[in-house]
Amino acid sequence: MSITAADVNKLRQMTGAGMMDCKKALTEAEGDFEAAIDVLRKAGQKVAAKRADNATNEGVVLVALSADHSNGKLIALACETEPVSKVADFNNLAKSIIDKAVASHAPSAHDLLAEPLADGRSVEGHIIELTGRIGEKITLAAYENISAEKVVSYIHSNNKIGVLVAFENVQGADVSEIGKDIAMQITAMKPVALDKDGVDAETIEREIEIGKDQARQEGKPEAMLEKIAVGKLEKFYREQTLLNQQFVKDSSITIRQLLENKQKGLTISMFKRISLV
Length: 277
Description:
Elements: H1 5-15, H2 19-28, H3 33-50, E1 58-65, E2 71-79, H4 82-85, H5 88-104, H6 109-114, H7 123-134, E3 138-147, E4 150-155, E5 161-168, H8 176-189, H9 201-217, H10 225-240, E6 246-247, E7 250-254, H11 255-262, E8 267-275
Antiparallel strand pairs: 1-2, 2-3, 4-5, 5-8, 6-7
Helix pairs in contact: 1-2, 2-3, 3-7, 5-7, 9-10
């Protein structure tokens, strides 16, 4: 059958795909618009499969806070190259995904990917379709959803790093400024856990082995290695767990002390950091 320019333009308006891709899809689908949309989706799936192992270190991180700042959500929509991260369709999709996260309160990335957007197709379906149109891998690289008495957010200036900090026992204090300072510290210092008890056993074991190897290379007696390694582990906790880190704006106090100075009993229950770099 004859595929008219009007038909091609109609499919383009429906899907955002290129003119030639729309014409090819309509021809393959013999003019059936729904079938043509399926053809375009399958093309996206083929591109996604072909580029599945490609690195996605570009993209955008977006945040959304509830009106009362008791809930925060972060997403990272990732792609392969910087030019794609600046494409309007890519950023519009990222905005649609964070809006859907807010509306649905999806508990996980898996659940968010299954959520329908305005046209009824899933978030994952839209990502696959855009993958086909743009021709490079696009993925929902991260999604975080946390609730607390107060949640403070921070997006780094390059829009590739985002942080959420959850505060408890606020007692009416304004934690916006201290929250931003701590979120910026998390951005820069990359703590592995909130406190000592949050460090996983594998990390602890690795740090002890590293400490032993360092001491051994320094010529320390074998009998002393374990004790030396435990001492080095304490240094690791001070440098790599948020509450025990020195505050970057005032190295005379730790983050734990900073909180206590702000409001007696003020605590952080968790933090989330997502990064595309």
